[in-house]
From TrEMBL:
Annotated protein name in UniProt: VanZ family protein
Keywords, sorted A to Z: Membrane, Transmembrane, Transmembrane helix
Domain VanZ-like stretches: 44-112
TM region(s), chain numbering: 14-35, 47-65, 72-92, 98-120
Coiled-coil zones: none
Pfam families: VanZ (PF04892)
Domain of life: Bacteria
Amino acid sequence: MNDLTQNAYRYTPLWRCLGWTMVAVVVVLSLLPQLPQPPSVLGWDKAQHFLAYAVLTVWFCQCYSRHWRWPAFFVALGGVLELLQGFTGVRTTDPFDILANSIGVSIGLGLSFTPLASGLRRFDDLVSRCLETPAE
């Protein structure tokens, strides 16, 4: 089954565009010079990495399909972005961030096998019902 027939949402282009926008935000935030921040409380930085990559993985597994390419892509993206941070001269490469990204991808993939994976389908249906014009 191809991606379009398996995940034929009514607003598929919108959900995919939103997904790629989230990827762009992660890329930009990963490569911007870091602004002064308060001290990290309980590993909040790692939690941000974990959450971002879990959300991206779940989202793409819903918008396209649950396929090995999405976890592989996001693990690679997280690793490359961390390595690129080391070349900015302002930020550093942190192997624990790569680990947090990868754990987030793993959890996101796992969540894509749960009822949570139908969340986008339900939301797409809700949006469709709300935007339909009543028949006269």
